[in-house]
Design brief:
Elements (H helix, E strand, L loop, with lengths): L2 H4 L3 H7 L4 E6 L2 E13 L27 E6 L3 E7 L8 E11 L1 H8 L12 H8 L16 E4 L9 E4 L13 E4 L21
Antiparallel strand pairs: 1-2, 1-6, 2-5, 2-8, 3-4, 4-5, 7-8
């Protein structure tokens, strides 16, 4: 994985990240997941993006450079992991929505719960962050040259297995076709339309 791979708009990078491996090293141990579901967010051009209203202290990482991790807390409970993409200075990121644990399953299960099925350990962005051990301390981590959280190439995914659809649970620009996932994969999260969603214009 290199910077050239990520230095493109989020909607172009998001499907290409399927099959890539996201690894988090913590004092407890290492957990790696193969990415099975992503969502693209296009910064200030995207009403559903955290960067829609411009740069703030919270979303500064989204503005680049590419190849870093943007971490935010969802509903005050879960830490979510995003890969920063695009051009430095222009906000763009890919939310990692789901993955298959390929290393450190015992540790992931300790974090998620002993009775959680393997396919559900990193199913959904909050569960994925918990399984990996992602926290606010990882915000801004260099995914390409760092040692705490790393993004690397995995097994290539055939184009025939990639599906595209509307984003999950967002109320604005929810119908943009910026969600990408592996067909019939049990680790992919279920589609859920936000009750506050309204039809929108856009990509």
């Amino acid at each position: 994985m290199n910077i050239d791979f990520l230095a493109h708009p989020a909607e172009e990078v998001a499907p290409k990240l399927l099959g890539s491996v996201l690894t988090c090293n913590t004092p407890e141990g290492t957990v790696s997941i193969a990415i099975t579901e992503t969502e693209a967010y296009s910064g200030e051009a995207d009403p559903a993006s955290h960067a829609y209203r411009g740069r703030t202290a919270r979303n500064a990482t989204m503005f680049g450079p590419a190849g870093h991790l943007y971490v935010y807390r969802s509903h005050g409970l879960h830490w979510c992991a995003n890969v920063v993409t695009g051009t430095d200075g222009i906000a763009s990121g890919v939310l990692i929505r789901a993955g298959r644990v390929i290393e450190g399953e015992d540790l992931a299960r300790q974090r998620r719960g002993e009775r959680v099925e393997s396919a559900r350990l990193a199913r959904g962005p909050g569960n994925l962050g918990q399984a990996l051990g992602i926290t606010a301390e990882h915000n801004g981590a260099d995914l390409l040259t760092g040692t705490s959280v790393m993004l690397s190439e995995g097994q290539p995914v055939p184009a025939a297995l990639i599906r595209m659809g509307p984003r999950v649970g967002v109320s604005k620009a929810h119908d943009w076709q910026h969600r990408f996932y592996l067909a019939d994969d049990p680790t992919v999260s279920a589609y859920r339309l936000s009750p506050r969603a309204k039809p929108s214009a856009g990509a």
